[in-house]
Design brief:
The protein is of the alpha+beta class. It has eight helices and 26 strands. The protein is globular and about 65 Å long.
Length: 418
């Protein structure tokens, strides 16, 4: 499925789209109906990140979250106790919540029922428009003692009511402070004080092979604990079939199922390192979570303003290799001629995008962005995500064997639904 409204990456082995099917733990389901998962789709990569310097209020909220990190219970030592999982669960479990959402949906009658002749013929036997209530369940975790909770945006999407239930049985009405569909992060607030809260780790320091512990409410089974390891980091959105997201996911083999969405993924010290989000349909041991650093940065903006601005340029791109260069130049249908062996090739420029207005063209090879050398699309996406909407971002290009310096001003991502 082609989408021409965002910065994105072509798979490195071709110019075609080829992605896996991934599934959200989409909460909505009819009462008495079996659980189902929703296909994310296919397309290009969008990397997640925080727009630096968004506002002073954002910085203040980030500081408040940092204070919460300091005030939280100290992390457990990474010892060799075979029962360390028990210690983690006892420490963090009370701060993991169940989130029940509901929304009212009107049943749409077929257009034929609106035909006057049809209505005159059937009269009182005409069916009436009815409302039905769809309900869903997800997870979340408390990040501040005054009741701020992190969860997935799709857990509360379209909800008329949100109910938060703690492990101790207390239940509160939740208010959605903000949600960002592009990263699938949401913040819910409950009116309560002196709540248990989690300690936040640093997802930038994660390495494959580390312990991973998931706590959540899969399939309505509250307070379920599963364990595994960090299988990989930096999984791009298009690799897992989530082209409409702007996140580089953490992969884990800790069991994740519908209902785990929004719950924490923890390290062996009981620190939250990610937020469980998606699985790949038909696979086992392939779960994906949003890095906590990404979730924290996004939540800071949601708490401050209720929305998030994501900078974008409006290009399709791919990291160059000698083999890819040869493939492109030997393909008469590619429409491109490449002279460089490394850098990031601009495959397409979206009309009227910031990149188009700056004079960037298909076939340009990006060498540096913001003063940093770039060799793959992911590094370009990170540089753009860490820029600010409307600010100058310097770019060095190679075009037809010549060096060019261009200033581009990232725009706000145009298709966001706040």
């Amino acid at each position: 499925m082609q989408n021409e409204s965002r910065d994105r990456e072509h798979p490195s082995n071709s110019i075609s789209h080829n992605t896996a099917d991934a599934k959200y733990h989409k909460p909505w389901r009819k009462a008495a109906a079996s659980l189902s998962l929703v296909l994310l789709g296919s397309g290009m990569t969008l990397a997640g990140g925080y727009m630096a310097g968004h506002s002073q209020q954002v910085s203040e909220n980030a500081s408040n979250l940092a204070v919460s990190r300091v005030n939280a219970a100290p992390p457990l030592p990474a010892g060799t106790d075979p029962n360390f999982v028990i210690q983690v669960v006892q420490k963090v479990g009370p701060a993991v919540v169940r989130i029940d959402s509901s929304r009212t949906v009107k049943t749409q009658l077929p257009d034929e029922f609106n035909d006057p002749l049809f209505q005159r013929f059937f009269g009182s036997q005409m069916p009436e428009q009815q409302n039905r209530v769809e309900r869903g369940t997800g997870s979340g975790f408390i990040i501040s003692a005054d009741g701020r909770i992190l969860t997935n945006a799709h857990v509360v999407d379209g909800a008329d009511t949100v109910t938060v239930t703690l492990k101790d049985g207390r239940s509160f009405k939740g208010k959605v402070l903000g949600k960002d569909e592009l990263t699938d992060v949401a913040v819910v607030k409950i009116q309560a004080e002196n709540l248990p809260l989690v300690a936040l780790g640093n997802s930038d320091q994660l390495q494959p092979g580390e312990w991973a512990i998931a706590i959540g409410n899969p399939l309505g089974l509250d307070n379920t604990v599963t364990t595994g390891i960090i299988s990989a980091t930096g999984r791009s959105s298009n690799l897992i079939g989530a082209p409409d997201k702007r996140v580089e996911y953490i992969q884990t083999d800790a069991a994740i199922n519908p209902g785990n969405s929004g719950g924490p993924l923890l390290n062996s010290r009981g620190e939250v390192i990610a937020m469980n989000t998606a699985i790949i349909q038909g696979a086992q041991g392939l779960g994906f979570a949003i890095p906590i650093n990404t979730a924290q940065h996004i939540s800071s903006q949601l708490i401050a303003t209720g929305k998030v601005e994501h900078p974008y340029l409006g290009i399709q791109m791919v990291g160059l290799t000698p083999q890819l260069k040869q493939n492109i130049n030997s393909d008469p249908n590619s429409g491109l001629s490449v002279n460089e062996d490394k850098g990031v090739l601009v495959v397409k420029v979206i009309p009227n995008s910031p990149a188009a207005k700056a004079g960037i063209r298909a076939g340009d090879v990006i060498q540096t962005l913001g003063g940093q050398a770039v060799t793959d699309a992911s590094s370009v996406q990170k540089a753009v995500e860490n820029s600010q909407v409307g600010s100058d971002l310097r770019m060095e290009l190679r075009r037809n064997g010549q060096n060019l310096n261009i200033a581009v001003q990232p725009g706000a991502f145009p298709t966001q639904v706040q």
